[in-house]
Amino acid sequence: MSVTDTHNAYDFDADVLRDKYRAERDKRVRDDGNDQYLEVKGDFSHYVDDPYVEKGFDRDALTEELEVLVIGGGFGGMLAAARLIEQGITDIKIIEKGGGFGGTWYWNRYPGASCDIESYVYLPMLEETGFVPRQKYTDAPETLAYCQVLAEKFGLNDLALMQTEVVSTEWDEATCRWTVTTNRQDNLKARYVVHSNGPLNRPKLPAIKGIGDYKGHTFHTSRWDYDYTGGNSHGGLDKLADKRVAIIGTGATAVQCVPHLGAGAKELFVFQRTPSSISVRNNQPTDPDWLGTQKSGWQNERRTNFESLMTGAPVKEDLVSDGWTEAFRRLFGQLRDEAPSKLKIAGWALGGAFDKNMYQLGPKQYLMNKAMKHMDIERKIELADMANMERVRARADEMVQDKATAESLKPYYRQFCKRPCFHDEYLKAYNLPNVHLVDTDGQGIDEFTENGVVFGGKEYEVDCIIFATGFEVGTDYSRRAGYGISGVDGLTVSEKWSNGLSTFHGMHAKGFPNCFFFGPAQSAFTATYTFSLDENGIHLAHILSEAKKRGATRIEASAEAEAAWVQTIIDKARLTADFQSTCTPGYYNNEGHVNVAPQNNFYGGGPIEFFKLMKKWRNGKLEGLEVRN
Predict the structure, then answer these.
(1) Helix/strand/coil percent split, the chain, to 5
(2) Is CATH 3.40.50.1980 what the domain over 63-101+156-202+474-573+599-628 is classified as, yes or no?
(3) Domain limits of the chain?
(4) pTM for the full model?
(5) Mean pLDDT across the stretch 516-538?
(6) Which ranges of 201-297 would DSSP assign to H, the alpha helix?
(7) Is the distance from CB of 296 to CB of 125 less than 8 angstroms?
(8) What is the DSSP string of 509-578?
(9) Which pLDDT tens digit goes with each residue over 116-138?
């Protein structure tokens, strides 16, 4: 049976697919939500040890005062420092728990690790450094090397305290400074503190019976053990030639490392709850002549073009032209032609298109008049999405020889329920005789034993278990950050946000003066996260340079500005709870426990609109901030 509307015909039954999507979602829904994962502490704390540094590092404790302390040495922290230095603010220190800069790219060195966003868009400040990425999609070694290029360009190595973890940050009203203590017994008095911890930085483990009983070798993908596997980020895992290996998880990380594990291991068992969406990657080497002909400002134009396409905004040309932009062109191209003035697409993860005023409170008649138009637009997008996913599922049939395995690898959900993957070797890996997909039908494994993994009454004896189980999302901010934050009168961030987020522009919080939060909460959520982080850095540098001109010592969001911004977030919210509740559980929808509090959304107008709003705000007036000398 085909589904037909007035403009398109599809050779699938939408009702059947909806039922299938619902059934697959229901298999994964669990009452415990985020509690299905263990916190990596106590007996499991070794899973966050740094395998990339020599043991025994030590240094003298520091006691000093400084202007700006940046917590986090990933792209967010590096860009914060770089943009401040550009504005002449140089009294800076950066605290990083790893042994070097890189953040996500410092920790995630698993074989095959690579960025799924085009390198010319993802790697920030390419024009400032003159760096030329080798490929359209950069890999982890090159990205990590680029972090050092940035560090050398802006002199960040001299500002960094590596292999150091913050223990607490406490506000002292008398001195208008933050007291920051570390595990190295440092006692730092900072005028300003920038929290750039990253949204995906704390590994998680499945809270499955017997996880502590297994006697073989284990590690998390974000702490890859090359001493055990051999090889490097490019593969060649020769020490696994006589090893039976299990990998738990089939998200973006597993998609990239499974082909290398399959090529190296004697036998590989891949335990899957939910398959990822796997589209074509088609990586290509960079043409240096092309890059050399780009005009000044090309990178900002390119990443703006990319993010515009991700949010359905009309553009004259698709500058990136990859799997991401193709998916959105397929979803929204026809609608843009039909109603360009009415089309306002929600963020790339939301999967819906809406009139920007659809969910704002308004006259009853307005909502009634718009309801039918909204339903028609949403139906067309749903059908286009189903057609996209039919192509993704057909690719599994084309590339995987065993039909049962191919069927298990087909994702039955809307494409942006989970972060889509683009890879040309993952599906082929299942054609190797030593690679076995263990499809747990959405349930996950039953338990661990001393010798291996149990599912469906069968024990899989293995020499090594690798956890590709991702990072904490949706847990308490301080828990994910790894330290406490206490503001005015001892108010903690956990207490502040216990009933929902409350910020000004996502960066400031009343009760936490001279404190800046980097991240997507109540601000811009981008596919190209470095774009958002760079905009954070530019915004921070403007505020602190303006404060310096005024001789200010204390900056805090006003209660009125914070309340107004929270209301803006609510008014702009896309109310995606309905969409997310139809998705199979994952970190996008809080493991199926959809957070319907509208103030916990990011800025609903999309990242480009948010960036323009912030640029307009940067007029030197610092409106909404209480500034004192």
Answers:
(1) 40, 20, 45
(2) no
(3) 63-101+156-202+474-573+599-628
(4) 0.89
(5) 90
(6) 226-229, 252-264, 288-292
(7) no
(8) -TT-TTEEE-SSTTS---SSHHHHHHHHHHHHHHHHHHHHHHT--EEEE-HHHHHHHHHHHHHH---THH
(9) 999 999 999 999 999 999 999 99
